[in-house]
Every structure is written in structure tokens, then in C-alpha cells.
Amino acid sequence: MSVWLPGAPCTPRGCVEPTERAAAVPLAVLRLTAVGLLMLAGIALLPLGRRVPAGVVRRWCRWIVRAAGVRVRIAGAAPPTGGLLLVANHISWLDVPLLAAVRPARMLAKAEVRRWPVAGALAARGGVLFIDRDRLRALPETVAALTTVLRDGAAVAAFPEGSTWCGRARGHFRRAVFQAALDAGVPVQPVRIRYRGVRGTPATTPAFVGDDTLLASVWRVASARGVTAEVEVREPIPAGRHDDRRALACAAQPEVSAGHA
């Protein structure tokens, strides 16, 4: 645990509950195959870089989540151009494509993501900004790198809680990443992510928490039925509205947890 990437108390055994209905094994395998094919297609298109239209990237990201068996509902929209810091609460590995479906951006991720099978290679080649949570001395350098990207007119996406939570509880937004938005003079786009079950109640099946493995979490999602991802794109916070990163982080923080909304 570190100041930059703190841990959450959520664990697979204590927080994650299966959905009321489970998909048959052949269907789950079919879903995983579809996700894998979409990931490979994304890797094949990486050499094209920014020449791929943003609309295509957004649709591709939605298809990944949908291929995993999760319905997607997005309310609101982010500014389509210009430097922008997107911030969201963090529950699942699904949050990454969901946030990119709002607006394609360079993602800030922990260094461990680089070692994930397939997804790690895709992230590295896609321009993800990795942060080593064991090297706090590297934090100013990371903030400076984010500032440069934002000043160049690109979007950066981050999960300021610093760790995944189950969805029924949430963490506080850490302030460091907001310093980059202040230094670059760009707006902040808050996004709230929630997962619902068949009856509209909070679903913890997608949660990727504690000592959970990526493969176990992916299989749990692919084996579930009736899960919906709800993405609420709130009003952007204009540059200059807040003078310090503490106030900016508080303004971007969701008012209530996903589990009580």
C-alpha cells in the first residue's frame, strides 16, 4: 500500500456475490472468444494510432464490454476535443473500456497492468501511462508527464481512488492527478460507473478486488447474466474554477457510492 495507490478493504470472498442467473459454460466461452477477437483486432489497429476515428474507438470499447455479456448504458457526453482529465470511481477491469467509450484517452494505470496477458500488451502499445506505486519519488515526474499530455490537447483518464472497490463502498479521490489538470489549465470530466443486476440492484459480480486474479474475474463476468453497466457522465469542471487540487478532487468525487445511488 502507498499514498499514491492505497488499498481497499474489499475482497472477493467478502464482497463479490454471483448473479442470480448464470450463463452456461459454452456461452461463457463464446463470450470470452469474442472479447479475445476484439482485443486482437485492437492490437492490429494500433499502428494506425490517432488516424483511427474516435467514434470507432468508442464503439470498439463498448463492443468489448457487450461481448463479455454486460449491457452498457451511457448518459451524458464529454467534450470531444481539447485537453481533458477524465476521472471515475474504480470497480472492475471493465471500467477501462467503459471510460474509453466516453472519450478515447491515454490511461493512467499501475505498472502491474503491463504484465496482464493480452490486455497488458494492448495497453503498453496503446500509450498507457504506467505508474510504479512502489516508487513515490517518481510521482512528480508522473504528474509532469500527465501535464505535458494534457497541454498537448489530449485526454487522460484516471481512477483517483487508487484501488478497486466492490461498488457498495467507495474510496476517496486522491489529489495528485488533479495537480496535472491545474498545471495544464484543462477541465476535469467526472464520470460515475455503476453495475446493476437483473432487478436493478447493485451487482458486485464485475468487481475486481483484493487478491482476485484477472482470469477469475474475467470468467466470473463472462459467466454472469443480466449485468448492466451504467456510466453517468457528469458536467465537466471548467479550468480555473478551483484553485487547489484538494478542492478540485472534492468537486469531482461522486456524492454517493454506487451501492447507495
Automatic annotation (TrEMBL):
Q: Which UniProt keywords apply?
A: Acyltransferase, Lipid biosynthesis, Lipid metabolism, Membrane, Transferase, Transmembrane, Transmembrane helix
Q: Where are the transmembrane segments?
A: 28-49
Phospholipid/glycerol acyltransferase domain ranges (all copies): 84-196
Top-rank taxon: Bacteria
Which pathway or pathways does this protein act in? Answer: Lipid metabolism
Give any Pfam family that matches. Answer: Acyltransferase
Enumerate the SMART domains for this protein: PlsC
User: What is the name listed in the Swiss-Prot or TrEMBL entry for this protein?
Assistant: Lysophospholipid acyltransferase family protein
Q: Which GO terms describe its molecular function?
A: acyltransferase activity
Q: Which InterPro entries does the record cross-reference, listed alphabetically?
A: Plipid/glycerol_acylTrfase (IPR002123)
